[in-house]
Design brief:
- The protein has helices at residues 15-26, 41-51, 60-64, 81-90, 105-118, 132-143, 170-173, 177-192, 302-315, 324-343; strands at residues 6-11, 31-37, 55-57, 71-74, 94-97, 122-124, 149-157, 198-206, 235-242, 247-253, 265-270, 274-277, 281-286, 289-293, 347-348.
- By secondary structure, the chain is of the alpha/beta class.
- It folds into 2 domains: 6-126 and 304-322, NAD(P)-binding Rossmann-like Domain (Rossmann fold, 3-Layer(aba) Sandwich); 129-300 and 331-348, Dihydrodipicolinate Reductase, domain 2.
- The chain has a 9-stranded mixed β-sheet with strand order 14-13-12-11-7-10-9-8-15.
- A hairpin with a 3-residue loop joins strand 12 (274-277) and strand 13.
- 49% of the residues are buried.
- Bound molecules: nicotinamide-adenine-dinucleotide.
- Nicotinamide-adenine-dinucleotide (NAD) binds at residues 11-17, 37-40, 43, 60, 75-78, 80, 98-99, 125, 127, 165-166, 222-224.
């Protein structure tokens, strides 16, 4: 780090890099966008030109060999998070890794090991932890305002919202809505519950609507939409059990014939009070009566908050709030859902 500036390398110059990581880095005074990498070299070159990166490369190993780079954002397809993160850790870079951490638990564990050995910051981009309402709920949970949170519901139902591109190709994504958007709600709800240790899961995945032709609906579109494959699930349900006796009911869909949720939803049920997201509401008692509270919070940009936290962790050598260990436990739940659905029975998440 020179002149107090953290030099950043972006690996994967597609949608999330261009819509969120790069704009959020650009709002910070203490970073320099140094290099960008994409297997499509022209894409890396275009992005370098547009945002002022010094280098554009095609192979992530070339980016990692640039000495001056302090930190990388991994924004590639899910199938390359593990090899890139392990190489980046071995090259001594701080890492912000897009969700999901990996495709398998073994990959996630190898990433966590490499990151621990490097002594550098490894942060999971669990961006929903950085929303204003999530931060508020986390503070209330830590103060004990909910008492014991003994059960929860977590989900994200899209009526029609299957992403277009590599997301539906298991070889590149590792799975469908469970690993794509389910990861967000499972992580957020688990985090707000106090990160209890997951012990077992029972799940079912479905492929019932698949490649629909519904008009008038919008979807997340990856940069490349050629070579389309659809071999993931399109919805799923699960019950996840934790060591402290708590449970999480989970449902998720890219396409389902029912009312979709506008974004994630999360219900926390505690012995003293409960809460929901989205929208934020606290369910308690006041003066002996049931009472609902709707706190008024200023909207915050979750990606800006996430990037700022990553940079602060680097500068202050502190542990991020979304660690590699968190990523591994979430990966165990995600892969446990797939294993349970495949085997047709509850599976243990304990080694
Ligand atoms: N946090 C969020 O809300 C959020 C939203 C969307 C996507 N994501 C995650 O971000 C990642 C990227 O998704 P996207 O929507 O930007 O996809 P995308 O296809 O638009 O962009 C990915 C880019 O990575 C490049 N790439 C793939 N493998 C590479 C490799 N080995 N080396 C270098 N470049 C490589 C591709 O050519 C492409 O340009 C995924 O892990 C996805 O789950 C997160």
């Amino acid at each position: 780090m020179k002149n107090g500036k953290i030099k950043i390398g972006i690996i994967g110059a597609g949608n999330i890099a261009q819509s969120s990581h790069i704009p959020s880095y650009l709002k910070q005074d203490d970073v320099e966008l140094t290099a960008v990498c994409d297997i499509k070299l022209e894409r890396a070159q275009e992005v370098a030109k547009k945002y002022g990166f010094k280098y554009a490369v095609q192979d992530y190993r070339d980016l990692l060999s640039i000495d001056e780079i302090d930190a990388v954002s991994i924004c590639t397809w899910n199938n390359s998070h593990a090899p890139i993160a392990i190489a980046a850790a071995n090259a001594g870079k701080h890492i912000l890794c897009e969700k999901p951490m990996a495709m398998t638990v073994a990959e996630a564990e190898a990433m966590a090991d490499a990151a621990a050995k490097s002594g550098k910051v490894f942060m999971m981009a669990f961006v929903n932890r950085f929303r204003a309402d999530s931060k508020y709920l986390k503070a209330l949970a830590d103060e004990g305002r909910f008492g014991e949170i003994y059960c929860s519901k977590a989900g994200w139902l899209r009526r029609r919202g299957t992403p277009l591109g590599w997301f539906t190709d298991t070889a590149k994504s590792g799975g469908g809505p469970v690993i794509d958007i389910g990861v967000h709600v499972i992580d957020l709800t688990w985090y707000l519950m106090g990160k209890p240790k997951p012990t077992r899961v029972s799940a079912q995945t479905y492929y019932k609507i698949g490649d629909y032709k519904t008009k008038g609906v919008s979807r997340w579109v990856a940069f490349d939409t050629d070579n389309l494959v659809f071999n993931t699930e399109d919805s799923a349900q699960a019950i996840i059990h934790f060591e402290n006796g708590a449970t999480m009911l989970f449902d998720v869909s890219w396409a389902i014939n029912g009312e979709g949720s506008p974004d994630i939803y999360c219900h926390l049920y505690g012995t003293k009070a409960g809460a929901t997201l989205d929208p934020l509401k606290i369910y308690g008692e006041d003066g002996g009566y049931l009472s609902d509270a709707v706190p008024v919070l200023k909207n915050e940009n979750r990606f800006d908050n996430e990037i700022r936290h990553f940079l602060d962790c680097i500068k202050e050598s502190k542990e991020p709030i979304a660690t590699a260990e968190d990523g591994v436990l979430i990966q165990k739940i995600l892969n446990g859902i797939y294993d349970s659905a495949k085997l047709g029975k509850e599976v243990s998440l304990v080694d």
